[in-house]
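Subject: for your reference before the review

Hello V.,

The reviewers asked for a structural picture of the protein, and I figured it would be easier to keep everything in one thread rather than splitting it across files. Below is the amino acid sequence we used in the manuscript, unchanged from the supplementary table.
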Amino acid sequence: MIEDIVDYVLNYGDWGLFIHSFADAVIFPIPALFTQVSLSLLDPSNALWLATLGFIGCLVGTPFGYWIGKGLGHTVMNRMLKKSWVDAASRMIQKNGEAAILIGSFTPIPFKVFTILSGCLNFPLWRLMAYAAIGRAAKFYIVGLLFYLYGRSAEGMVKDVSLYLLLGVVPIVLIIVLIRKRKKRKADQTAILQEGQQEQQGQEVSS
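And here is what came back from the structure prediction:
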C-alpha cells in the first residue's frame, strides 16, 4: 500500500518530491529521502533542484504538522505515530530540550514526529521552523550534492548520510546547548545576587 503511494508520487516527477516532503512533515510514514534518491538516480544533474523542492516542501508542511499536534493533542499523536518513535523523540526532548528538534532533523525518525510533538508541547512555531530549516536543508542538500558530484554512484553513499550528520553535527549542537545553559545559569545567579543585595540595602536604609 505504502509502496504504491510512493510509486504514485513518483509519477509527478520533480514535484512529486515536493508533495512527498510536505506529507513527510505532516503525516506520511515514509521519509522523503526515498523519493529524492529515486529521482536523483534518474537525472543526477537535476539533484540540487530536487533538493530545493524537497526542502521547500518540508518547510511548507512543518506548520501543518505543528497545528495538528497543537489542535488535537497527544490523543491523535499516539494514534498517528508509532509508540517507539514518540518515545524516542520524547526522550531526546527531555534530555536536550528544544535542541532535540534540530537533532531530530538528522535522525532516521520521521520528521513529522517532531512537528506534531512540538505542537503538543506548545513549542514556539518560529523556533520549530528555524530548526527545521537548518536540519532539513543539511539533509536534502548533502544528498543532492552527492548525486550532483558523483552521479548514480552516490546511491551507495546516501545510506550513511544520517550517520555522518549525527556524528558531525549533533556534538556541535550539544556543545552550543551546554554553553547556552551555562550562560543562562550564570545570568540567573547574577540576578538572584543583585536582588539579594538590593533587599539588604533596603533593610539597611529602613533601619
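For the response letter, the relevant points are probably these. Residues 2-206 form one domain. The chain is about 85% helix and 0% strand.

Happy to draft the paragraph if you're swamped.

O.
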